[in-house]
């Protein structure tokens, strides 16, 4: 069995009386898309924050690429190779599209404290940046101001910025949210191929997308993982049907 | 040094702290409710002092002077709020700082224009002059003692108002959620004007009370304003309780520091050097206090998480 | 060529032509006035580095301006009284050499900005504004109550400091020194705005989460920006003290912090040359309104209020368009 890239070992997090994460164990193996689903308020955002940094678990630990990263900051985890996209697009809105991807490439390469080299003339960064834009199909928009992009294009740009980090794993928080049918379809095709580059932990509401893409699915309900398994296993799991899918059918 | 002198200085520190609270309460309320940083608060303090001095000169009545300080400062507050401040609630802090700094320039120079550069004098009334005997044979200025008591009474009234009255409930609601209280049908712009006027009146009142100890002059508001900032940063911006604790802390630290530090250095330095070193350090003491608090609690003692 | 570039060039050309004309016309006062504008511009460019590019609203830059001033004052005072600054553990003598003084001013301001920034940047928003203000006040009161260097009366330096090969007492020669320093500082800031650091700092101003997600720490970026910003403003302080041959605690006063901020705002926040336009306009207003009325700050206040409420881009916003260029 291949070693997981990301290994979440029994993490718990409480806010007062509310147990937002209860002894969650979850892993992400090379080459797979592992989807995390669950009803609203199940604690998905809390879990993502504990994995990506910004929120420290009360108990348990997060391992990434064979290393305990629980005590590292968000920035340090990103440097280790966590490529994150946000649920609500989080970009430098005043910058052009190209500047945003160059930002990613520059952040990943380090050497940020340089004051005399024009960053937008750095051939290496530009090559990485343009390549990432081409992969998500935004190359024509390189010189657009980010605030001029449509909602869907911003989601694509988020993915492009994550690509510039040459991540070892992607953490994608609802990348399809707000995309039209066509946009979703295109992004699905892209993610399908992307798993060969790096595995994806995919938080997603769109069940069709999840069932079409995921190698494994974990179901989070009230801060607990109630089931993990293949698409078929999850589809047929009685507990999941009643706790979650049942609601959708009703 | 005698214990009596120490107690006297502690009382002075308390008096200073109570006055700082009157300034800081308005600042912190205005920030808590409207999210506004108001540099012109010191100008309202000055307006109160000038109104009191002018009224006292015209009528000879100290009580009338105090009333005038409240009325004029509140009135100035209402005008400033409706003409300028109102446009700043949705702006970022930079705009608020600059616009209220512009107001400070206008207030200061306008007052200099009207009253000249020479200080005015506001005399404390006959019936508050002299000293009183406190327990343990401590002789203390009656006026300063009155300031402490009046200040504490105003503080108590303010706490009561915010905890118990309708307007207080609205103020607290406004701190939590502006849209919610608008939805409840409270006239929000009226509430804002009212809170601003209340803060202005407290500042003006403090200006009048202090004006009788120090001189009434242009620029008197700025040092107090900055101390009030230190107070609310220490206490936690938006918290009235924090403002009170912060004000007493700052008042005590400053007053006792000025008294004790030179004496402390006098223990092992020659007198002249001890005085200057002590005085220099004392002038920095409250800022060091602030830095210390922020090191452990970046949002102040009573600030939110 | 873009309008902003044209405006930059025009501004710098005017700042060269006007004093030269004043020199021809034998109007040394106008040269001194322009020198003031140029020095204020340097202070503003310094603040703009933190405020405009990093979004750090520092209301305490008078601290660095004053430190630069006192670095000059103290060094020159010891040189003119032939007393050492310090004897133990090693001897430090005063100096009248401008380059040495500038170096000391820059280093002291940078170290102070690093310390003040390290503490202040733990907070954000309105806390940051008030804390930077309070730290500047700390220096103000300290300078007032510390008798060694004149306390509240300040320090007078009889003869302007030396620069190799120049007569610094000649207004036009001193002006040229300041102008060249302004040009060098602008060159640095212009390059830095386009550098990896500038890109990352600007991103942190817009969205800290984004910067963290690409593996960088906003706090470090801010701290470096604040330190550089303080150092530049400190250099301006040293020049200002040399211009007046006088330092006093008023260089630390909060009005000074406010005025430096005004230079930035009048010109246009986040524009490399904005503070130059802002400082020039400020001096122009001071000169013209000051001639109209002793109470010209009333008008200054009204103008500032108007700019904040109705013309937020400043002069550059009005002339070169609202959008800040980022290429």
UniProtKB/TrEMBL annotation, chain A:
Q: What class of enzyme is it?
A: hydrolase
Coiled-coil features, chain-numbered ranges: none
Any idea which UniProt keywords this protein has?
ATP-binding, Hydrolase, Nucleotide-binding, Transport
SMART domains hit by this protein: AAA
What is the E.C. number? 3.6.3.-
Source domain of life is: Bacteria
Q: Which residues form the ABC transporter domain?
A: 6-247
Pfam families reported in the protein's UniProt record: ABC_tran (PF00005), BCA_ABC_TP_C (PF12399)
Q: What InterPro entries has UniProt attached to this entry?
A: AAA+_ATPase, ABC_AA/LPS_Transport, ABC_transporter-like_ATP-bd, BCA_ABC_TP_C, P-loop_NTPase
The keyword Hydrolase is assigned to this record: yes
- Show the GO cellular component annotation of the record: plasma membrane
> CDD domains, per this entry?
ABC_Mj1267_LivG_branched
Q: Which GO terms describe its molecular function?
A: ATP binding; ATP hydrolysis activity
Recorded hits in PANTHER family, A to Z, give: ABC TRANSPORTER ATP-BINDING PROTEIN, CONSERVED COMPONENT OF ABC TRANSPORTER FOR NATURAL AMINO ACIDS-RELATED
Query: What name does UniProt use for this protein?
Result: Lipopolysaccharide export system ATP-binding protein LptB
Supply the source organism for this entry.
Thalassovita autumnalis
Name of the gene: lptB_3
UniProtKB/TrEMBL annotation, chain B:
Where is the secretion signal located?
none
A Gene Ontology molecular function term of the record: transmembrane transporter activity
Task: Specify the protein's topology with respect to the membrane.
Answer: Multi-pass membrane protein
**CDD domains, per this entry?**
TM_PBP1_LivH_like (cd06582)
The subcellular location is:
Cell membrane
GO terms for cellular component: plasma membrane
Write the record's keywords in alphabetical order, separated by commas: Amino-acid transport, Cell membrane, Membrane, Transmembrane, Transmembrane helix, Transport
User: Which InterPro entries does this entry report, sorted A to Z?
Assistant: ABC_transp_permease, BCAA_transport_permease
Q: Where are the transmembrane segments?
A: 16-37, 44-64, 70-89, 101-122, 142-163, 184-213, 225-251, 272-296
Q: What are the recorded Gene Ontology BP terms?
A: amino acid transport
The organism's place on the tree of life at top rank: Bacteria
Coiled-coil region(s): none
Entry's family note: Belongs to the binding-protein-dependent transport system permease family. LivHM subfamily.
PANTHER family in alphabetical order: ABC TRANSPORTER ATP-BINDING PROTEIN, BRANCHED-CHAIN AMINO ACID TRANSPORT SYSTEM PERMEASE PROTEIN LIVH
Name assigned to this protein: LIV-I protein H
Starting at the broadest rank, the lineage of the source organism is: Bacteria, Pseudomonadati, Pseudomonadota, Alphaproteobacteria, Rhodobacterales
UniProtKB/TrEMBL annotation, chain C:
Q: GO molecular function, one example?
A: branched-chain amino acid transmembrane transporter activity
Query: Keywords in UniProt for this one?
Result: Cell membrane, Membrane, Transmembrane, Transmembrane helix
Which Pfam families does the UniProt record give?
Answer: BPD_transp_2 (PF02653)
UniProt subcellular location: Cell membrane
Keyword Signal applies? no
Record has Cell cycle as a keyword: no
This chain belongs to the protein called: Leucine/isoleucine/valine transporter permease subunit
Q: Which organism is it from?
A: Thalassovita autumnalis
């Amino acid at each position: 069995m291949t070693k997981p890239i990301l290994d979440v070992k029994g993490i718990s997090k409480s806010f007062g009386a509310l147990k937002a994460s209860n002894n969650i164990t979850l892993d992400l193996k090379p080459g797979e898309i592992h989807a995390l689903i669950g009803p609203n308020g199940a604690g998905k955002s809390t879990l993502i924050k504990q994995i990506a940094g910004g929120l420290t678990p009360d108990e348990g630990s997060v391992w990434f690429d064979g290393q305990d990263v629980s005590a590292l900051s968000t920035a340090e985890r990103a440097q280790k190779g966590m490529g994150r996209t946000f649920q609500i697009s989080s970009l430098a809105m005043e910058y052009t599209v190209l500047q945003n991807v160059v930002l990613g490439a520059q952040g990943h390469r380090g050497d940020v404290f340089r004051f005399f080299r024009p960053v937008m003339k750095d051939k290496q960064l530009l090559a990485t940046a343009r390549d990432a834009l081409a992969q998500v199909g935004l190359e024509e928009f390189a010189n657009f101001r980010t605030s001029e992009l449509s909602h869907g294009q911003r989601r694509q740009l988020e993915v492009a910025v994550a690509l510039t980090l040459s991540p070892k794993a992607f953490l994608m928080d609802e990348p399809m949210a707000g995309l039209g049918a066509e946009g979703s379809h295109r992004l699905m095709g892209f993610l399908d191929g992307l798993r060969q580059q790096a595995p994806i932990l995919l938080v997603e509401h769109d069940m069709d997308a999840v069932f079409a893409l995921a190698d494994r699915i974990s179901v989070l309900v009230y801060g607990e993982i109630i089931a993990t398994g293949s698409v078929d296993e999850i589809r047929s799991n009685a507990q999941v049907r009643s706790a979650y899918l049942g609601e959708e059918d009703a | 040094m005698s214990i009596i002198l120490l107690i006297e200085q502690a009382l002075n520190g308390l008096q200073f702290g109570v006055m700082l609270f009157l300034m800081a309460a308005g600042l912190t309320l205005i920030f808590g409710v409207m999210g506004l940083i108001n540099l012109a608060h010191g100008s309202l303090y000055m307006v109160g002092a000038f109104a009191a001095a002018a009224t006292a000169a015209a009528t000879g009545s100290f009580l009338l002077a105090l009333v005038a300080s409240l009325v004029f400062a509140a009135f100035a507050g209402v005008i400033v709020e409706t003409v300028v401040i109102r446009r700043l609630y949705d702006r970022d802090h930079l705009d608020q700082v600059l616009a209220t700094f512009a107001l400070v320039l206008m207030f200061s120079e306008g007052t200099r224009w009207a009253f000249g550069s020479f200080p005015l004098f506001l005399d404390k009334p006959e019936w508050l002059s002299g000293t009183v005997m406190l327990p343990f044979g401590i002789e203390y200025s009656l006026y300063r003692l009155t300031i402490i008591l009046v200040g504490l009474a105003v503080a108590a009234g303010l706490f009561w108002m915010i905890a118990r009255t309708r307007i207080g409930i609205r103020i607290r609601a406004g701190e939590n959620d502006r849209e919610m209280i608008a939805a409840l049908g409270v006239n929000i712009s009226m509430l804002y004007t009212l809170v601003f006027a209340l803060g202005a009146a407290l500042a003006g009142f403090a200006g009048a009370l202090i004006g009788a100890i120090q001189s009434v002059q242009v620029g008197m508001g700025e040092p107090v304003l900055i101390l009030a900032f230190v107070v609310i940063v220490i206490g936690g911006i938006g918290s009235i309780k924090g403002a009170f604790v912060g004000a007493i802390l700052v008042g005590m630290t400053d007053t006792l520091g000025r008294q004790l530090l030179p004496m402390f250095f006098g223990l092992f330095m020659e007198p002249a050097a001890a005085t200057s070193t002590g005085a220099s350090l004392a002038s920095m003491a409250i800022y060091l206090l602030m830095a210390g608090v922020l090191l452990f609690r970046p949002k102040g003692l009573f600030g939110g998480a | 060529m873009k309008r902003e570039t044209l405006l930059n060039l025009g501004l710098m050309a005017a700042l060269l032509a006007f004093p030269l004309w004043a020199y021809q016309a034998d109007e040394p006062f106008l040269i001194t006035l322009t020198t003031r504008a140029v020095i204020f511009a340097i202070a503003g460019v310094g603040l703009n580095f933190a405020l405009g590019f990093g979004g750090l609203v520092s209301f305490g830059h008078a601290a660095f301006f004053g430190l630069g001033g006192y670095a000059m004052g103290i060094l020159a005072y010891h040189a003119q009284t032939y007393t050492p600054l310090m004897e133990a553990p090693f001897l430090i003598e005063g100096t009248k050499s401008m380059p040495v003084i500038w170096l000391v001013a820059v280093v002291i301001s940078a170290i102070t900005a690093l310390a003040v920034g390290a503490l202040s940047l733990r907070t954000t928003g309105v806390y940051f504004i008030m804390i930077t203000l309070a730290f500047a006040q700390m220096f103000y009161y300290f300078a007032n109550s510390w008798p060694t260097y004149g306390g509240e009366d300040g320090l007078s330096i009889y003869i302007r400091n030396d620069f190799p090969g120049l007569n610094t007492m000649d207004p036009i020669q001193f002006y040229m020194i300041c102008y060249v320093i302004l040009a060098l500082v602008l060159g640095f800031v212009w390059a830095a705005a386009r550098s990896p650091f500038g890109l990352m700092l600007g991103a942190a101003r817009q969205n800290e989460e984004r910067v963290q997600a690409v593996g960088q720490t906003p706090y470090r970026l801010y701290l470096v920006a604040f330190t550089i910003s303080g150092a530049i403003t400190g250099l301006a302080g040293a020049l200002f003290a040399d211009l007046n041959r006088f330092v006093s605690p008023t260089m630390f006063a909060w009005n000074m912090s406010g005025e430096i901020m005004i230079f930035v705002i009048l010109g246009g926040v986040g524009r490399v040359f904005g503070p130059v336009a802002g400082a020039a306009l400020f001096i122009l207003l001071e000169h013209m309104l000051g001639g109209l009325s002793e109470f010209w700050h009333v008008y200054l206040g009204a103008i500032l209020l108007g700019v904040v409420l109705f013309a937020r881009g400043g002069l550059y916003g009005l002339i070169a368009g609202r959008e800040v260029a980022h290429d």
